[in-house]
Amino acid sequence: MLKKTEKKTEVYALGQHISMSADKARRVIDQIRGRSYEETLMILELMPYRACYPIFKLVYSAAANASYNMASNEANLVISKAEVNKGTTINKFKPRARGRSYPIKKPTCHITIVMKDISLDEKYVEIDSLKKPKWKKKYTDMAYHDMYGGVWDKK
């Protein structure tokens, strides 16, 4: 009996103990979920948040994993799953006046980026943003008549 071998279509990159709040990282992750690889890199480079740099590194790492493990092209990669989980909180104590102490809590988070190669998956044959329009423009110039009888061109 022969087993049917399935080709792996997903790769992931995992960043653990990143020193930032999970809510701040989620704000960026929600913008890139479901987008293509090139579009994600452009978005992350232009967003003004501190969370963009570690997420950029993880997306780049996941694409490198895809090209090395599956020999896939970067143009075919789509972020299929991106999630942020809460990590451990680092507690420090800062000395204050009269011998008291004040706790400083530094939150961490774990970020997981899963990328899918759409050329290997039968479900995704073409992405709508990468398709060329099927219709062609028949009329290049249009002439309009105004109410006084003159004709003017609209381009």
Automatic annotation (TrEMBL):
GO MF annotations in UniProt: rRNA binding; structural constituent of ribosome
Subcellular location: Plastid, Chloroplast
CDD domains: Ribosomal_L22 (cd00336)
Gene3D superfamilies per UniProt: Ribosomal protein L22/L17
GO cellular component: chloroplast; large ribosomal subunit
Keywords of this entry: Chloroplast, Plastid, Ribonucleoprotein, Ribosomal protein, RNA-binding, rRNA-binding
GO biological process, one term: translation
Residue stretches in coiled coil: none
Family of this protein: Belongs to the universal ribosomal protein uL22 family.
Subunit structure: Part of the 50S ribosomal subunit.
NCBIfam families: rplV_bact (TIGR01044)
General function of this protein: The globular domain of the protein is located near the polypeptide exit tunnel on the outside of the subunit, while an extended beta-hairpin is found that lines the wall of the exit tunnel in the center of the 70S ribosome.
Protein name (Swiss-Prot/TrEMBL): Large ribosomal subunit protein uL22c
Organism: Aspidosperma cruentum
Lineage: Eukaryota, Viridiplantae, Streptophyta, Embryophyta, Tracheophyta
Recorded name of the encoding gene: rpl22
